[in-house]
From TrEMBL:
<protein>
    <recommendedName>
        <fullName>Peptidase M14 domain-containing protein</fullName>
    </recommendedName>
</protein>
<dbReference type="GO" id="GO:0005615">
    <property type="term" value="C:extracellular space"/>
</dbReference>
<keyword id="KW-0645">Protease</keyword>
<feature type="domain" description="Peptidase M14">
    <location>
        <begin position="6"/>
        <end position="303"/>
    </location>
</feature>
<keyword id="KW-0479">Metal-binding</keyword>
<keyword id="KW-0378">Hydrolase</keyword>
<dbReference type="GO" id="GO:0008270">
    <property type="term" value="F:zinc ion binding"/>
</dbReference>
<keyword id="KW-1015">Disulfide bond</keyword>
<dbReference type="GO" id="GO:0004181">
    <property type="term" value="F:metallocarboxypeptidase activity"/>
</dbReference>
<dbReference type="GO" id="GO:0006508">
    <property type="term" value="P:proteolysis"/>
</dbReference>
<comment type="similarity">
    <text>Belongs to the peptidase M14 family.</text>
</comment>
<keyword id="KW-0482">Metalloprotease</keyword>
<feature type="active site" description="Proton donor/acceptor">
    <location>
        <position position="269"/>
    </location>
</feature>
<keyword id="KW-0862">Zinc</keyword>
<keyword id="KW-0732">Signal</keyword>
<keyword id="KW-0121">Carboxypeptidase</keyword>
Length: 306
């Protein structure tokens, strides 16, 4: 079963998702969006209380960056609430289908458990013998690719890949997002990272570009989500345009809005902890995920009205 007093491994997460699908066949559907570079399945769970497709959908993913362990844990808590506590959260499923990918980068995630706690990238093919392999999946999406905040040097932490969508994980996300949103049903994309706390909205690909046309609305929704999380005991989130943090092109958030036509897109930098910010202790998982869930309620309420 799912636990929030320890960080779960890839195999445990997969098993938990399969158990949910077995136990709640009318509420839950699993789909593989494809395999990672090292052949691990990337599983998306769909939670839906509708017969057929609801008029709207929301997509949440986590773990693009391997070391940001609190992100998959937060996605798992969301899944647990929506499925195992569905009676309390009927409102969140009203006319809204949820697609949740708790682990976009399973190879990198496992590598942070076995070998290098602070690995960020995927575990794709090495291009040099000088350094460790892998590309930064959040620099590999094809929207203003390589325009800023990314590196062509394979050893760099922010190596953008040898071309846009060079990596199987980002290709799989691309194909899934385009397919899921072919009828413009997906209203919102939330991609979970750490650490902040920050709520970032497009565009992030460069300085001094025009704000997204709906920047004011993006900020207003973000502020409302922040208020709900603070009310639940969270540290306050900084709500800002993501280039304000630093410009970085090739992110999944910009691509979701700019290419996949998902109206509202956010990177949520979850609360940090530990010595580095990324290594928040397991003892804090339960409080952080529960606080963040109150933000999801707000985001979902808006997705239902878009
Ligand atoms: O740099 C990133 O990819 C994100 N921060 S993190 O510390 N989790 O690595 C921020 C991404 C913001 N979005 C874009 N710049 N598009
Ligand atoms: Zn990240």
């Amino acid at each position: 079963n799912v636990t929030f007093d320890a960080f779960m491994r890839y195999d445990e997460i997969e098993l938990y998702l399969r158990q949910l699908a077995d136990k709640y066949p009318t509420l839950v559907t699993l789909q593989s969006v494809g395999k990672s570079a090292q052949g691990r399945e990337m599983t998306v769970i769909r939670v839906s209380a509708s017969d057929g497709a609801a008029p709207r959908a929301i997509l949440v993913d986590a773990g693009i960056h391997a070391r940001e362990w609190i992100a998959p844990a937060t996605a798992l808590y969301l899944i647990d609430q929506l499925v195992q506590h569905a009676d309390e959260h009927r409102d969140l499923l009203d006319g809204l289908d949820w697609y949740i990918l708790p682990l976009v980068n399973p190879d990198g995630y496992e590598y942070t458990h076995t070998t290098d706690r602070f690995w960020r990238k995927n575990r794709g093919a090495d291009l040099l013998f000088l350094c460790e392999r892998g590309a930064d999946l959040n620099r590999n999406f094809d929207f203003h690719w390589m325009q800023s905040g990314a590196s062509t040097f394979p050893c760099a932490e922010t190596f953008a890949g040898k071309k846009a969508f060079s990596e199987p994980e980002s290709q799989n996300m691309r194909d899934f997002m385009l397919q899921a949103n072919k009828d413009k049903r997906v209203k919102m994309y939330l991609t979970l990272h750490s650490y902040g706390p920050m709520i970032l909205y497009p565009w992030g690909y460069d300085y001094r570009v025009d704000d997204a046309p709906d920047a004011k609305e993006l900020a207003a929704i973000g502020n409302e989500a922040n208020a709900a999380m603070v009310a639940a005991g969270s540290e306050p989130f900084v709500v800002q345009n993501s280039a304000e943090l630093y410009p970085a092109a090739g992110g999944s958030d910009d691509w979701a809005k700019g290419v996949a036509n998902i109206a509202k897109s956010y990177t949520i930098e979850l609360q940090g902890g530990g010595a580095s910010g990324f290594d928040i202790p397991a003892s804090r998982i339960a409080e952080v995920v529960a606080q963040t869930f109150q933000g999801f309620r707000v985001f979902a309420g808006h997705a239902q009205r878009l």
